[in-house]
Design brief:
- By secondary structure, this protein is of the alpha+beta class.
- The protein folds into 4 domains: 90 residues, Rossmann fold, CATH 3.40.50; 57 residues, Dna Ligase, domain 1 (2-Layer Sandwich), CATH 3.30.1490; 111 residues, D-amino Acid Aminotransferase, Chain A, domain 1, CATH 3.30.470.20; 87 residues, no CATH class.
- Helices cover 31% and strands 29% of the residues.
- Strands 8, 9, 10, 11, 12, 13, 14, 15, 16, 17, 18 and 19 form a 12-stranded mixed β-sheet that branches. A 4-stranded parallel β-sheet has the order 3-2-1-4, with helices on both faces.
- The longest helix is centred in the last third of the chain and has 19 residues.
- The model has no long low-confidence stretch (mean pLDDT 92).
């Protein structure tokens, strides 16, 4: 099986990693030569995929194509080419056209009665402003008064979604399938850095069973309304004992699929390939005996180890997989001996979440001791900048 991953940044890292775990041959394609996923594939091609003349050269030998970017021109080109070539595109463009707009998503939530943060101005301060287009934490800001919110709006020409700021723990779930036949996968716990960028994912979840069932029901109703064929990620926050949907992404997300793979053995790319290559029943796997997983991003510089959001990986050069990395089961990293500044995504697993966290503490300690890193920073939203020493 030859899989072409189009896009070499964060989604591309996820796709290339899982495709290799599936035992596939992997080509990564990106218009930039220096992207993180370039080191995780069998072959890398620097091609501008928005040019139709380049599509056949780039994708013609692939058995399937995995979009791993949010460039609409590129997605449109791939959709048109896939229809003509009959090579499957593991992607639902109709569902994505709604989920890629937070404004459209908010209107969808309202129509089907999905619990979500209240929209401004029907809510009090503080409020959270996020661009309608774009994924993750990009450009998210929290405002505590009308003056600063209005100043922000005047400075920007983008379409913004403004809603009440609801503090609380964050959770994610993926749903896969086709209309009338959807399967919720494992719930994972998300932890954020001060900029609301996900720095750590944990499994199994600490969400109680009743709320897990509610989360699955909410996510299934969204998938049905979107008539999704493929994979969708839903993120919620638990506020005052109520799950509130923050966003939905009808595409392969970053971070959580790898955590689900390590915790349950379920590879979402294999499920997607089965969904698009055959019309048979989906084989999901066993979600009942999960392993504990800690998945987190670190940045090492002179004298400091910092746990930070995945933006630190986005700016990295070619990554590679290193097993048994200072006690971690695996690391996806650009570390090389002698390199002073580097990043890594640490993947740490044990029989339970508690044992996994104990193992994680040893991994961080070993890295700090080996590189003589006196300063350590691991901040969450609302925390002041502070560092700890040994």
């Amino acid at each position: 099986m030859l899989a072409a991953v189009v896009g070499g940044n964060l989604q591309g890292v996820e796709a290339a990693y899982l495709a290799k775990k599936a035992g596939w041959e992997v080509t990564v394609i990106d218009r930039n030569a220096h992207v993180p996923a370039a080191g995780l594939c069998d072959r890398f091609s620097q091609i501008n995929i928005t040019k139709p003349t380049d599509l056949e050269r780039a994708l013609g030998s692939a058995d399937l194509v995995i979009p791993a970017l949010e460039n609409q021109d590129a997605l449109d080109c791939m959709e048109s080419w896939s229809l003509k070539s009959e090579i499957p595109l593991l992607f639902d463009p109709c569902a994505y056209s709604i989920s890629s707009s937070k404004a459209k998503s908010e209107r969808l939530f309202s129509r089907i009665g999905v619990p979500a943060p209240r929209a401004w101005p029907e809510c009090d301060f503080p409020v959270l402003a996020k661009p309608s287009r774009g994924s993750g934490s990009q450009k998210i800001s929290v405002f505590h008064d009308l003056k600063n919110l209005q100043a922000h709006q005047k400075r920007s020409v983008e379409e913004w979604v403004i809603q009440e700021f609801v503090p609380g723990p964050s959770y994610s779930i993926e749903v896969v399938g086709r209309p009338g036949n959807y399967f919720p996968l494992q719930v994972t716990d998300l932890q954020m850095d001060p900029n609301y960028d996900c720095k750590r994912v944990l499994a199994p979840t600490d969400l109680r069973p009743g709320l897990i069932s509610e989360f699955e029901k909410i996510s299934g109703s969204i998938a049905e309304k979107l008539a999704l064929k493929g994979l969708m990620d839903v993120e919620v926050i638990l506020h005052d004992h109520t799950l509130k949907v923050l966003e939905v992404d009808a595409r392969l997300p970053s971070q959580t699929p790898t955590v689900v793979f390590w915790s349950t053995g379920i590879n979402m790319l294999e499920i997607l390939a089965n969904l698009f290559l055959t019309e048979g029943n989906l084989i999901i796997g066993d979600l009942n005996s999960p392993m504990g997983v800690v998945y987190e991003h670190i940045r090492v510089t002179a004298n400091r180890l910092e746990v930070a959001g995945e933006h630190v990986i986005s700016g990295a050069d070619a990554l590679q997989i290193q097993e048994y990395f200072f006690g971690a089961d695996e690391a996806i990293t650009n570390y090389r001996p002698g390199r002073e500044a580097w990043v890594a995504t640490l993947i740490i697993s044990e029989k339970s979440r508690e044992l996994t966290w104990e193992k994680r503490e040893r991994v961080i300690s070993d890295i700090r001791q080996h590189f003589k890193l006196d300063l350590y920073r691991d901040l969450s939203p609302g925390q002041n900048s502070k560092e700890t020493e040994p």
